Structures are given as C-alpha cells and as structure tokens.
Amino acid sequence: xxxxxTSGPVTVSQDAPGAPRAAPASDRPPAMGDxxxxxxxxxxxxxRVLNDHPxxxxxxxxxxxxxxxxxxxxxxxxxxxxxxxxxxAIGVVTEDSPLYGPTMTLIALENAARGQGMYVSVATVTxxxxxxxQGSLEHYMDQGVxxxxxxxxxxxxxxxxxxxxxxxxxxxxxxxxxDGDIPTVAVNQYAGARLATRHLLDLGHTDVLHVAxxxxxxDARSRSRGxxxxxxxxxxxxxxxxxxDWTASTGFRIGKELVERDRTGEDxxxxxxxxxxxxxxxxxxxxxAESGVRVPHDVSxxxxxxVEGAAHFFPPxxxxxxxxxxxxxxxxxxxxxxxxxxxxxxxxVRASLAVRASSGRPRS
Amino acid sequence: xxxxxTSGPVTVSQDAPGAPRAAPASDRPPAMGDxxxxxxxxxxxxxRVLNDHPxxxxxxxxxxxxxxxxxxxxxxxxxxxxxxxxxxAIGVVTEDSPLYGPTMTLIALENAARGQGMYVSVATVTxxxxxxxQGSLEHYMDQGVxxxxxxxxxxxxxxxxxxxxxxxxxxxxxxxxxDGDIPTVAVNQYAGARLATRHLLDLGHTDVLHVAxxxxxxDARSRSRGxxxxxxxxxxxxxxxxxxDWTASTGFRIGKELVERDRTGEDxxxxxxxxxxxxxxxxxxxxxAESGVRVPHDVSxxxxxxVEGAAHFFPPxxxxxxxxxxxxxxxxxxxxxxxxxxxxxxxxVRASLAVRASSGRPRS
DNA sequence: GACTCGGCTGTTAACGTTCACAACGCGTCG
DNA sequence: CGACGCGTTGTGAACGTTAACAGCCGAGTC
Lengths: 364, 364
Hints:
CATH architecture of the largest domain in chain A: 3-Layer(aba) Sandwich
Strand order of the largest sheet of chain A: 2-1-3-4-5-11
Oligomer: homodimer
Structural class of chain A: alpha/beta
Strand content of chain A: 15-25%
Radius of gyration of chain A: 29 Å
Helix content of chain A: 40-55%
C-alpha cells in the first residue's frame, strides 16, 4: 500500500542533503501516511487519533499528535468525504436580491452550521420558476451536499421542491407547513400580522388598510390573512387590500394614490395602514410626508421585518420583528433531524412587535 | 477490477430473477463503472465522454450518453476533486451583519462564479480580529477550496490576511492596494467621495461637514480623504470630521448634537453634510426632521452606498452608488487570474453619484 | 508487404481517507 | 495451562474518479 519508497532506510527525518526524508515527496501536502511514518505507526492509527477513537495508547497518541504538528498536517476533507459519503456541506438556495429576511436567515444559518462543524454553500436564483430552482437543486446533488435549505415561500419554488426527488433532505424556510414530507421552518407570519393589526385596533383604529405583498408568496398571503381575520374577529369590515410587491417604489406609488383619492373625495384616507413589509411602509411614509399627510397624526403606518434603519425612518417605524436568528438555528435543527431520518414537525418561529412612532391613536 | 464479490454469483441484484442487471448493487448511486458496464465500454471511456475528450467514436459516445441517461448517472464531484486536487469551490469570508455592500458583493460574486462552473462557500465572522479571520482561512484550507475571497477593508482583517500563508490565492475586496502580493478589488471610494463632495461644492456649499465612518476601515478612511482633499483643493478649510460608525443610531445622535450646538450658538449648523454611508445619513435625516431642520433647505445631506430604499428616504437621498455587480465580477476575475498564477494588478471599480432631493443649493 | 502513425479503447495505478478484519500482547479465569 | 477477552495496532480493501500508458486496428508510406 501507499508509498513504495518505504523500501530503504525507514523514517529518517533529516534535512541534510541526500538523506531520505519523512516529509512528503515533492510539494504535495503531507498525508496520513507521512504522519504515520514520522510517528512510527500505521496510517490507521493516525486516523484513529484524528477521530478520537478511544482505543489508542496515550503515548502513541502523543507521538502522532506531535508528528502532525511537526508536519503541519491537515486532514484532507475531500478524501474523507469520498469514503464517508458525507461532505459536511449544506446548500442554501436564496434570492438574487439583498432582501433583509433571507440575508439574515442565511447568516444565522451559517452560524448555526459552523457550530455543528458543517459549512454552507450558497446559490442564488433570479427567479423562482421550477426550472431554475430545480437547476439549483441538481447543482447541489452534484456537489454532494448533505442537505439543502431553500429560503423561499414562493409558490412556484414550493412546487419545484415538492416535485424534485432529492437524495438528501431539503428544508424549506418560509412555508408554514407543506404537503409531502418536506420539513419546513417559518416565521409565524400569521401571528405577526395579527399582532400588528391588533396593535392598531387597540389604538382605536377601525379603518386599517392593508397594503399586501405579492400573493404568489406564502409569506405575503399569511400576513394578509392575519390582518383579515383580525379585522373580522373585531367585527370590522375591512376594505379590499391593495396589491403590492416588496418594493419601496410601489409603496410610494400606492401612498400617492391613496392621498389623491382622498383629495378627489373618491375614497377617504384610512386612519391606519398595515404594510406587508418595511420597504412598502417606507414608500408610504415617503408619499405621505411629501403630500403633507402627517404620520401618525393623520394616518398610522405599520410595517413588517424590522429592517436595518427602520428605527430611523421618519417617523420611526412600528413594525413586526421576526426572530431571524432563531429561524436560522431551527432551520439547521430541522435539517439535522431530517438527515438523521427523523420525521419532521413543521417549526414556527415567533415574531414580536416593535412599537415606534409611526403608529398612534386615530385623530377623530 | 473493483467488486471482489464477482467471485460467486455476480452482483446479482435482480428484479426479474435470473437476469443480471447493469444497475449498481444495493442503493448506492450509479458510478462510472455501472455506466461503463451498461454501455459495454470501460469506465475510462465514460470518463472521456464526460470530459469531452476528442478521441471517442461518435457511436460510442452516444451509447455512453444513453447509458448515463438511463441510469440517471451523475458524476461524483468529490471523487473527481480527490484526484484533480481542485474542488471548484471558492470560500468567501464576510461579516456577520447584513451590511448592504458586502451582501451585494457576495451575490454578484456568486453569480460570476456560477458562470465559470465554480461555486461559493460562505463563512461569516463577527469580529475582524486576526485570530477569527485566520480561523476562517484555516477552515477554508481544510475544506480544500480553490481560492478565498475576503470581503473586508478592516485594518486588522488586512493584517490577518497578510500574515497568513495560504496554499491557495486569497483576494481581498475592499482595500485599494496592498503590500505583498495579495490581489485586491475595491470600489474607488476616494473617487466616489470626491464626486459627492464636488457635487455639494458645485451647488454652492462651502461648509461641508463630514460624518466619518470607523477609521479602522480603509473604506472609511478613503472616503474621508476624498472629502478632505476636495475641500482643500477648492481652497476651503474644512471643519474636523465627526467620527461615527456605520449605524443609523449614531447618525441620529450626531444630527441631534449638531442641531443642539447650533441652538446654543456653540457651532453653526453646516450647510451640507457628507455622511460616510447611507445609514449614517438616514440617522441624520431623522434627527433633522425631528428637530425641524429642513433638508435640503437648511442643510443638504449626501450618503454613500445607495442602499435599498435610499430613493424613498425623506427626502430621497443623494448618494454615491458603487457598482457592486462589477465588483463581484472583477473579484472573480482576480481570483481566477491568481489561480492561474498570473501577477495581480489591483482593480478599482468606479462609483457614480445618484442625485436626489436631499441635496440642493445652500440657503443664503 | 513491412512499417509507421494516429484514432480509439482498455488496463492499471494513483488520490487520501475510513472500514472491516486480523493479529498481537497481556491479564484473567476456569 | 490453555482458552478467552480486551485493548491496541496493523493490513488490505474499498470509495469513484482521472492520469499514464499500452494495445489494437486501419490507413498511409516507402
């Protein structure tokens, strides 16, 4: 096996010219065999030391360790992965754009993964169509990851994952629960939305308008439902939600329209708006400020996500704060459980409300 | 070779009794050998087909391809990496927090990498001290990445990278240029800062205050220098910059202090402020709005980064927009060049100015 | 017709680990 | 005193790919 060069004087490690060295041939980084030779043991013993196998004599272990030290040996993860069939990598599929939630989730997930000795490979996706998502999944199958996390509650992404036969566990972050045996981790969007709406109702509002996110996102739908149910249960008949996307520009446009319709008498300005995310809320704030509509005096605004800086919007934004760190952590838990073959219970992470200056009692 | 079990009934895994199958034993995914057997060639020929080796007869190639198709064979990247000593992975070290620039850079980098058939592994870091950074680098050495990108212009991070002997190329994103042979890619922070300051001067301002970023960041220092040099070259004597960090809270506090000192007569409010990033600017806007200081009527504000939503701050923020996509792309170029052993020229990416409503002519 | 050459293919040996098993030394027990 | 068990170590064979080399065959070439 291994080094044929062992024929000849064994293991003489000296730098003097002409003498055979224990150091590896050429520039190749040292391998187990090199360590073994230097320590005067077999490569298997080195392996045992590295893997904390109990049955190694203390003295042997020390000799191996010092040989490792001396050679600057590092275990070759690739070779190890080849035989164990585990790479320790988990693949994350996320969106191309710097959305706050996904980014935070990715970071938290990475931290959690590192805590478990795993590492994270990331692939971004511009659109969530089935072909693209499955392309990413294929990529990860080739890459030999131990598991995949898809950060998306987009309908089509869900379909893509559901119809993909993966050889490793796939966890979805976003959907609260899924048919099939796909483990999920999600922020409790519904509860968060109820929290926000309840807050406005408690302040005395009765006309709480909802500016919705794109309805192809489960997240957006849950938030809409949370708002809707809360209104109904309070005995209120809500206006139809205004459809939006996740951007500030759209929030701005909608804000302008609301003001304009109020001016023309077409529709009265609501006393409060619950926006599906902070960007929409930011756009609304901008439109209102520009039109001389005072927040919260004339209209209260509540957002969702508590993005960086939301505390310094003008006025500081009342918003729902999901616990992304917890989300990332639980996400890894789900993945690890799934890898161990345990059946998965959907996990919901709670969101809290950050009350700031953008919400207040209605005027009249 | 391989299967020693060939002695005795060969590999019998059969669906219909008696008929030997080309399918692999047990549940192991099919390997080259399985494809080879099905196509009636050697595994080496399969390898040749997969690697587009020229000397394969068309008919043979087709037979192999259809065998691959039939078995759903995928090449095992790990085994391949073991023998080629290249994993196709590049490691990215970035910060724990959802800073806009690094996030954008990461995304752009990932896209560029995928375009080259490489993929990106990410490790985050809470602090940039030498031990932590080198820990991440060690991690990537173990992981066998083909190269590493460190997204940080933090002084200590730079030192950490400089004093680390890596076996693969390491590119730093942030520093404009570095001693030693470490390739760099950076936004031209200095030019961007000059652009912003020049813009304010052109509007007629003479008292442009600079709210600086943390000076342990090269980025922050370059921006400060750009502002400072531009002021001097215009024959103006700038006030001392106000030290800040990257957060909106600090911007807010500073804004409040400025207003307060104006009120007490201790120091007049400047007619314009150049903030080292958009978060600081956001905090300033908040403080000014809250204090009744009108932007840009009483004071102009310019930021840096053009974060998501900057166009809908109130008022919309004039800011310097770095080309992060270009940054990510060039970053990969640097890495690829370094992997090919080519000497690296530092790369500077240009930044442009997004002029919006937060900057205007000075009042008097 | 022998010889060479180039296209095509197969054989064997790496790559650096872990796993399964065998072997050895030594104390204990029947 | 031999059998047994246990702690410790070594040996050989995987894992699935690419690299190096050798062999075969038909077409030119002299």
